[in-house]
Amino acid sequence: MNTEYEDFRASVRRLAADKIAPHAADVDDKERFPEEAWAALRAADLPGLPYDEKLGGSGADLLSQVIAVEEVAAACASSALVLLVNWAGTSTVVSHGSDELRAEVVPRVAGGEAGAAWCMTEPTVGSDLSGIRTTATRDGGDWVLNGQKRFISNAPWAEWYAVLARTGEKDFGVFMVHKDDAGISFGPHEKKMGMRGSPTTDVVLADCRIPGRRVVADPTQGYRYINGELNVSRALIAAQALGIAQGAFDAAVAYTCDRRQFGQALSRFQLLRGMVADMAVKIESARALLHDAVALITAGDPRARSRVSMAKLLCSDNAMSVTTDALQLHGGYGFIRDYPVERMMRDVKITQIYEGTNQIQRLVIAKDVYAGQVRS
């Protein structure tokens, strides 16, 4: 990795350590929005990373986005989730939306003044998006949306919601719904195991009327548009998992250096050293695979779809293992909230589930293996 990326990583790491980490435990304990972290991210212009300068962003590449998410997640996974969901919620508009729609939605999100979310999951629909029941019906120059979206990250904090809705028997569109539109409401705050600082509610659409300009491009191609964005969003989730693993690893190494038993530091015990070595290998191998996937995505290589599924799978599975071992290395202290590893272990579990469960990732990978598309 060149010096520019290393300098960027170092700057985000300092920001996370100084401005985000000190508030992470309180954010988790009180299940509140990470206000301090968001203010720090805004001050550093990080919400605008992926957007073109003419839309108020800095036009950074995907690797920079991955690095930023990883470093923020190492301090506070909830703060990283708020950031990356903003990017996901606007990705379809950026890729396929009209200039008018981009100008309406993106600048405030890029400046951190507004949030965004994307709405796919429903009460009976998770991995199988073709089963979506939310509908969008054309009425004159408007669209009228009806349905219920579940587990929507950044709701109700976000200002914009990218809603995948059925427009025909086999057709889907992506519609940008504003928080102030008539007919949109929000369910109660979800009481979650982890990611407690990331707001999550249902989004309910009851005869929600939006102007025709807020449909993203072709209202029959939304399913294809969303699928096209999954490579990037899965890379960002992989980065989040990797960051949590790195944060837990760093905490475990520091603890085992300081903690003494039988007259010596825990770090001198051979069995513990073996655990730490395995954790280090899991983190570095996952990071290498993620960066390889990012390079393929950036190059537009068709192998990217399978490779990023591998990266999401490996990063999240390895992170679950690393955080579990990090807690074990803390002994009984790892089980109490005075230390961050128990929060990290709770936070990381969802990375094996959302943005396509790891079982789904395995199916994607296997399909490409049998199609002969994985070999370099």
UniProtKB/TrEMBL annotation:
GO MF terms held by the record: acyl-CoA dehydrogenase activity; flavin adenine dinucleotide binding
UniProt cofactor(s): FAD
Aminoacyl-tRNA synthetase is among the record's keywords: no
Gene3D superfamilies with a match to the protein in the record: Acyl-CoA dehydrogenase/oxidase, N-terminal domain, Butyryl-CoA Dehydrogenase, subunit A, domain 2, Butyryl-CoA Dehydrogenase, subunit A, domain 3
Keywords of this entry: FAD, Flavoprotein, Oxidoreductase
Pfam families on file: Acyl-CoA_dh_1, Acyl-CoA_dh_M, Acyl-CoA_dh_N
Domain Acyl-CoA oxidase/dehydrogenase middle positions: 118-208
Start and end residues of each Acyl-CoA dehydrogenase/oxidase C-terminal domain: 221-369
Domain Acyl-CoA dehydrogenase/oxidase N-terminal: residue ranges: 3-113
Entry's family note: Belongs to the acyl-CoA dehydrogenase family.
Protein name according to UniProt: Acyl-CoA dehydrogenase family protein
Native source species: Amycolatopsis echigonensis
